[in-house]
Predict the structure.
Amino acid sequence: MKKIIIIKYGELTTKKSNINYFLKILKDNVNKAISGIDATVTFDKGRMFIESNVDNYDSILNKIKNIFGIHEIIIGYKYDDREMESIQNNIVELLKEYDLSTFKVITKRSDKNYPLDSMEISRKVGGTILKNYNNSKVDVHNPNLEIYIEVRINAVYIYFEKVKGIGGYPVGTLGKGLLMLSGGIDSPVAGYMAMKRGIKLECIYFESPPHTSEAAKNKVLELARILSTYNNGIKVHVINFTKIQEEIYKNIPHEYLITIMRRMMYRISERIARYNKDLAIINGESVGQVASQTLTSMNVINEVVKIPIIRPVACFDKLEIIDISKKIGAYETSILPYEDCCTIFVPEHPVINPEFSKCEEYEKLIDYETLITEAIKTRDVIKVDNKNKYEDLL
Ligand code: ATP
Ligand code: MG
């Protein structure tokens, strides 16, 4: 008998034609997450298996539960001996530690040539349990313990417990994207949702020292670290936005400050994305949330780039976004009260329906091409990962 982790894919199994591509990336992601632990990962079209020393299973479980593409994680037992009588004996032995007051046996037989069908196997195993454990009872509707048996070509798997995975597609299967990461609540949630669709992230953060502090930057890096759990490390491009913002502030009518500033952010983000082969920009804009997120504003701001912009939380209520933020453990960090580069230069009356022609007219007042090139050239690139959480490996 070998203890084993079984991974079920769920949503992936609908991707019939390129399932192997998805599974290879999932296997890679699993291997990276558990690197340092002596374990072997194998897969077939239906399941992925991790085998290791018995002592490692809890730490493996901890490391793989945040991997997208995993629907369910099972810690089970693998037996090469598939004889019916052996299955019965092995189950009786395994059940010693479990509460059997009510139970149900569920059998899946992927080897269709096995001499007994699923119903017959369940019935035989159920009978043996009743015989060996005096106070046990079958309850098919609401059992205390579910006993799963999978009869596959070369082995039998037995398990009792399942842990829910986080679903989605394996990160990287849909290419790379650039997340505009601020210190707020929305953008980390947007990043999480993009990763769930299989997009591998890198981030861009605009800071305006000395108007924004080191603490504000560290908060963003902490949010990046939280996201990196799902992404296997994350790169953050830190752009010094001070000169651009000051030039805008000095030269442009204040009601257009935010609009022009966001057009500059988009321009810089697109260039960084193209340079790094990111296929989309992702951000935390939500329709109607602030003046720069009306549909008119979005049109005028979006106009300066050609790259697709994905806005995962565009149609979510703030409360829905907060729910996800809490679920992914970002909320407590997001609400820390540090200033953001946008909030410092916020005008009293930002335009709600900006005009294209005015943006173009005002932008002629600053030499933004030079400023953008300079900001990109002098950016800082910081690699953030989750090593601290994996200290048991080191
Ligand atoms: P909040 O949760 O308070 O709304 P926010 O980060 O969503 O914070 P917004 O002003 O709504 O702030 O900005 C919309 C989006 O623009 C953000 O979700 C983020 O994707 C991007 N953004 C804003 N400021 C920055 C910044 N300093 N660096 C990088 N991206 C930013
Ligand atoms: Mg927002």
In short: The pocket of magnesium ion (ligand 2) is lined by residues 184, 186, 284, 286, 289 (CB under 6 Å). Residues 257-275 form the longest helix (19 residues). The radius of gyration is 27 Å.
